[in-house]
Amino acid sequence: MATFNQIILVGNLGKDVEFKALEGINVLTFNMAVSQKWSDKDGNAQEHTDWFTVDYFTKGEALKEYLVKGTTVLVEGQMVSREYEKDGQKRTAWSVRANKLQLLGGKKDEVKNESSDAPF
After folding, report:
1. How do the pLDDT tens digits run along the chain, 120 residues long?
2. What are the residue boundaries of the structural domains of the chain, listed by start?
3. How far apart are CA 72 and CA 107, in angstroms?
4. Any residues with CB less than 8 A from the CB of 26 and at least 6 apart, and which?
5. 71-104 exposure pattern, b = at least 16 Cβ within 10 A, e = fewer
6. Top-level CATH class of 7-35+46-115?
7. Contact 118, 57 (CB under 8 A)
8. Cα–Cα distances in Å, from 87 out to 18, 24, 82, 90, 92?
9. What is the pTM of this model?
10. CB 34, CB 11: distance < 8 Å
11. Residue 110 has what pLDDT?
């Protein structure tokens, strides 16, 4: 049986990107807000925002200066989980491992495209 894990998100960064240099690869980590807007049955505007943690692995570091709070981005990747223990209880944290990142505007008003060449 074939399996498939892909997520596509468009949203805004909640804060500036965190940059970590590892052996031969860089990790850009950021939180992004994805909002949904609709009108309820009475015509009142409603909104719900989901927050996603995104890890983007890249050999370059050029994008980090553009990934600031408020920037609109498109992210494609996979949902991944990790288990950890806190206060004696096992917990699961979910994040997005992005393999494509596109700047759509916002703070820097420049559009950049990048696809990861990371081995993930």
Report:
1. 889 999 999 999 999 999 998 888 999 999 999 999 999 999 999 999 999 999 999 887 778 889 999 999 999 999 999 999 999 999 999 999 999 999 997 554 444 555 555 544
2. 7-35+46-115
3. 8
4. 19, 20, 57, 58, 59, 60, 61
5. bbbebbbeeeeeeeeeeeeeeeeebbbbbebebe
6. mainly beta
7. yes
8. 26, 35, 16, 8, 13
9. 0.79
10. yes
11. 45
Coil/strand/helix, residue 18? strand
DSSP annotation of 42:
T
- Return the residue matching tokens 């994805």: 34
> 80 with 92: CB under 8 angstroms?
no
**Virtual torsion, Cα 106, 75, 20, 12, nearest 10 deg:** 30
User: In angstroms, how far is the first alpha carbon of the chain from the final one?
Assistant: 22
Count of beta carbons in the 10 Å neighbourhood of residue 25? 16
Sequence-distant (≥ 6) Cβ neighbours of residue 25 within 8 angstroms = 57, 58, 59, 118
CA atoms of 7 and 73, how far apart (whole Å): 14
